[in-house]
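One-letter codes give the sequence; the fold follows as tokens. An example follows:
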Amino acid sequence: MDRLPVSIDRNSPEPLQSQLRQALIAAIHAGKMAPGQKVLSSRALAEKLGIARNTATAVYDELVARSYLEAQPRRGLFVATRGQGKGQSVAGASVVDWQARIGVTPSKLNHIRKPLNWQDYPYPFIFGQVDPRLFPLNAWRNSSRDTLGRASLDWWAADRAVDDDPMLIEQIRTRILPERDAKVYFHWLENIEPWCISRQLWWGHQIPVWYGFDLGSPGFEDDEGDGTLDLAEMLRLLNEGHLGPLMECGPEFESVANAFRDRLASLPVPLSAMQVVEVESRDAALHRLASALADYTATQDPTHLVYPVWRDPD
């Protein structure tokens, strides 16, 4: 793709990012960019058009999300094969007559037909419509406000991995359990130990759990495919990651540090060389990671990158 099928009008009031996005889509639809054709890297595209690389990267990301482009690991970006091979059967694949199996599709149902002013009728007799005079609007509004209000947030957003809903327990006690079994059940319930899974497996052995953030993103590939990230690529990887928990078990920090280093080794440079450090909590880990990334952004010094891990307080 040495000759670009797109151009940028710098005198147009339309933003460069919007121009580039529309030009690439138009080139794909017009067949100037064939399915399966490799596209220029964001860096090369930015150099040829004389635009910022972030602009090219943002457009590529959007086109991948909209299935105009597809990323292939260690190869780069390619024009997606949108609808290619339609009508061709795959060897060995079973052919199912879905129309015969489904019978009636919703699009062919005889839908309710009603006049636009049906609410003006004293007795419209239309199925599925709410009569505002009979609907308990005030009760519904109060229930919605109570459920979505700040006062209820701590209750329904709490981590109840080791707790039971007291309302559910009361319901079981008063509505489900026979009188003779209630005492035995509640004696068992009150003596349950809130152990994590690892402690249940070891029947109470004190095996601390250490947590760290998952900085990886399945299928991510840097533009050059060399396993080394520049600043823009590193921020894109972290934005695509889900910051979920990684867990390792060990009696002390030194026993899990190597395990976390092994996990980091699969990340591209410079994230693979992050220094594993111990912090007090998840909030402290977020703060430490953000500070380290800010220092790296300012200095470009990879020794400033740290990977914080914290211990389960239980």
Observations:
- The beta strands are 69-72, 76-79, 209-213, 245-249, 275-279, 306-311.
